């Protein structure tokens, strides 16, 4: 029977102890690295969530009614945790547009003018739930329909004002807004001018379905005018919508809205707000404005992503009108896109709005007439450089009905050339 060599075994164990200790230390170091990477991964996930929420907010502000193509899978973000700071919660965007305009009408002097527009806005994510937003714009603060400034008046300095200042609450598919807020509705300029930002509270809901479709539901309580003594002016509006999935090269979308105005006070309005709606001798509106608005769109991408064809149709009826001039309708047909360098897009539009079809205070500001017009429009867009856009626009319009000696039924021409830089 061989003798057990205990001294050798003990010596071997003692010799191995430092190796075991080193392995334990190495394991602890690896665990610490894993924990650090997991913490970094969590920070990146939070940043990605904020980016996704901001993207959804920007998509809503663009009011693109077509469900976009399925987003490509994102590459993993490789960001040092040192970069994760308060600055990642702040998003700033804006644009500057320079525009020339010519107006031509039978029996009137040809007119040439120039306009400038500047906008800069920011959002700040206080938390995953709360976002603050604000935007500074040029233009007359008493005109909600336009942020353009006429270059005139002996080189006076430009006016600047806040056209957005709001709190946003993010609750998954539902977002709530309060203050001077972004427009919540899918729209065309037949009913809503693109510069109008309501004041009040709104809810924007969008739920993506399996297969790429989306359901939308938006609501707005709009404080139009508050009177300390008399009745207030408000609007309650709601809209539901559906965006289809891709069906081969086709997509379609539909939106239906109802806007119920209660116009008790007009003391805060001026001629630029009333515009072409019918009014009584005391300045009040002849009609109520209870608008039903339906927008239908279809997109064909069979010629590739660069040359989609998009058709949008809008029909509005004022159920509260006290006149037979209570309906408006129109369509836009666009060929091409204008989002990447060297893109071209050509758009033809036809619109007709009767006198009290819509509330003129918030409808289009592209023409001398806010309602009671028939319009043909042709627009050519070109992207010469990233984040730039050149647009040439021709408006060919006339009064739908001659209701004043100031307007005849002759056609009026308005031509615009604009250069836009965004950031």
From TrEMBL:
Note the superkingdom of the native organism.
Bacteria
Which positions are tagged coiled coil? 20-57
Tell me the organism's taxonomic lineage.
Bacteria, Pseudomonadati, Pseudomonadota, Gammaproteobacteria, Steroidobacterales
Alphabetical UniProt keywords: Coiled coil
Q: What is this protein called?
A: Porin
Q: Which Pfam families match?
A: Porin_5
- InterPro entries cross-referenced by the UniProt entry: Porin_5 (IPR032638)
């Amino acid at each position: 029977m061989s003798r057990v060599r205990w001294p050798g075994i003990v010596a071997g164990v003692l010799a191995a102890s430092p190796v075991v200790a080193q392995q334990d230390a190495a394991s602890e170091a690896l665990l610490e690295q894993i924990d650090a990477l997991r913490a970094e991964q969590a920070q990146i996930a939070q940043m990605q969530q904020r980016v996704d929420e901001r993207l959804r907010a920007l998509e809503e502000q663009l009011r693109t009614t077509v469900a976009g193509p399925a987003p490509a899978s994102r590459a993993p973000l490789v960001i040092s945790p040192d970069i994760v700071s308060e600055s990642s919660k702040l998003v700033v965007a804006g644009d500057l547009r320079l525009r020339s305009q010519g107006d031509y009408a039978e029996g009137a002097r040809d007119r040439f003018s120039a306009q400038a527009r500047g906008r800069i806005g920011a959002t700040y994510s206080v938390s995953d739930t709360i976002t603050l937003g604000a935007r500074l714009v040029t233009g007359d603060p008493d005109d909600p329909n336009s942020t353009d400034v006429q270059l005139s008046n002996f080189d006076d300095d430009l006016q600047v004002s806040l056209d957005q200042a709001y709190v946003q609450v993010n609750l998954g598919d539902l977002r709530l807004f309060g203050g001077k807020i972004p427009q919540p509705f899918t729209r065309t300029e037949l009913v809503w001018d693109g510069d109008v930002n309501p004041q009040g509270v709104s809810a924007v809901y969008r739920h993506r379905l399996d297969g790429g479709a989306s359901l939308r539901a938006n609501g707005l309580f709009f404080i139009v005018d508050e009177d300390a003594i008399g009745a207030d002016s408000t609007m309650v509006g709601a809209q539901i919508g559906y965006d289809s999935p891709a069906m081969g090269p086709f997509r379609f979308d539909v939106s239906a809205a109802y806007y119920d105005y209660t116009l008790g006070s007009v003391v805060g309005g001026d001629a630029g707000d009333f515009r072409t709606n019918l009014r009584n001798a005391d300045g009040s509106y002849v009609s109520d404005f209870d608008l039903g608005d339906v927008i239908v769109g279809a997109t064909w991408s069979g010629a590739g992503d660069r040359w989609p064809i998009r058709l949008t149709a809008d029909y509005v009826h004022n159920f509260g009108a006290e006149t037979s001039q209570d309906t408006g309708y129109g369509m836009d047909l666009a060929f091409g896109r204008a989002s990447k360098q060297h893109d071209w897009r050509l758009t033809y539009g036809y619109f007709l709005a009767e006198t009290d079809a819509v509330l003129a205070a918030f409808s289009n500001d592209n023409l001398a007439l806010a309602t009671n017009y028939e319009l043909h429009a042709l627009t050519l867009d070109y992207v010469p450089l990233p984040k730039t856009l050149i647009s040439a626009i021709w408006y060919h319009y006339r009064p739908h009905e001659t209701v004043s000696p100031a307007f005849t039924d002759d056609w009026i021409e308005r031509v615009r050339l604009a250069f836009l830089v965004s950031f």
